[in-house]
């Protein structure tokens, strides 16, 4: 699937390879992954969207999950030189639409994400609810590693 937006941004589906994934992660100073980790992450994604400008990849996002009850938006990465150009919006809209296409009619699917501190307003714009709330506790995380943190 290739899709043109109103600008020169091009959205492509499942075109991200390990090298590009690692390069985009490094561009935003995210922790490094092994090539095996990166390949597994890509292989186990429901979809990987990538935005190109003049043929050059400038952003990506993955959708992971079971495709029925819960999906997660993961690794929404915009190269620093391409931020604030609509790339994040294009990726968010495409990932939300893809998740919606998986949802069975008449059912509810949770679409979750974890965002960097200070980025909450961007995601609230797309309908995400910051936690905790009166009814929902905080999100939680556990790092599984060979050494204690």
Number of helices: 4
CATH topology, by name, is Aminopeptidase
Architecture (CATH level 2) name: 3-Layer(aba) Sandwich
What is the CATH superfamily?
A: Gcn5-related N-acetyltransferase (GNAT)
- Low-pLDDT runs of 5+ residues are 1-6
Largest sheet: 6 strands, mixed
Distance between the termini: 41 Å
How much of the residues is beta strand, in percent?
Answer: 25-35%
Structural class by SSE content: alpha+beta
Shape: globular
Let me know the number of strands: 6
Radius of gyration, CA atoms, in whole angstroms? 16 Å
Number of domains: 1
Helix content: 25-40%
Q: Give average pLDDT, whole number.
A: 93
Order of helices and strands: EEHHEEEHEH
Outline the structure in words.
The protein is an alpha+beta fold and 149 residues long. The chain has one domain (2-124): Gcn5-related N-acetyltransferase (GNAT) (Aminopeptidase, 3-Layer(aba) Sandwich). The chain contains 4 helices and 6 strands, in the order ββααβββαβα. It has helices at residues 18-27, 35-43, 87-102, 120-124, and strands at 2-4, 9-13, 47-53, 56-65, 70-78, 110-113. Strands 1-2-3-4-5-6 form a 6-stranded mixed beta sheet. Helix 1 (18-27) packs across helix 2 (35-43). The N and C termini lie far apart (41 Å). InterPro entries: Acetyltransferase_Butenolide (IPR053144), Acyl_CoA_acyltransferase (IPR016181), GNAT_dom (IPR000182). Residues 9-145 form the N-acetyltransferase domain. GO terms for molecular function: acyltransferase activity, transferring groups other than amino-acyl groups. Keywords: Transferase. This is Acetyltransferase (GNAT) family protein.
């Amino acid at each position: 699937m290739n899709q043109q937006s109103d600008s020169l941004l091009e959205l492509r589906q499942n075109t991200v390879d390990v090298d590009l994934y690692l390069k985009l992660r490094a561009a935003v100073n995210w922790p490094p992954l092994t090539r095996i980790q990166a390949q597994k992450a890509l292989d186990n994604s429901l979809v990987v969207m990538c935005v190109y400008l003049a043929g050059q990849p400038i952003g990506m996002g993955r959708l992971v999950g079971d495709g029925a009850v819960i999906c997660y938006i993961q690794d929404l990465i915009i190269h620093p030189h391409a931020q604030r150009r609509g790339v994040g919006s294009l990726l968010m809209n495409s990932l939300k639409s893809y998740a919606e296409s998986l949802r069975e009619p008449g059912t509810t699917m949770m679409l979750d994400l974890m965002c960097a501190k200070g980025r909450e307003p961007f995601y609230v714009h797309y309908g995400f609810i910051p936690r905790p709330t009166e009814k929902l506790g905080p999100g939680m995380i556990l790092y599984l590693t060979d050494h204690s943190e």
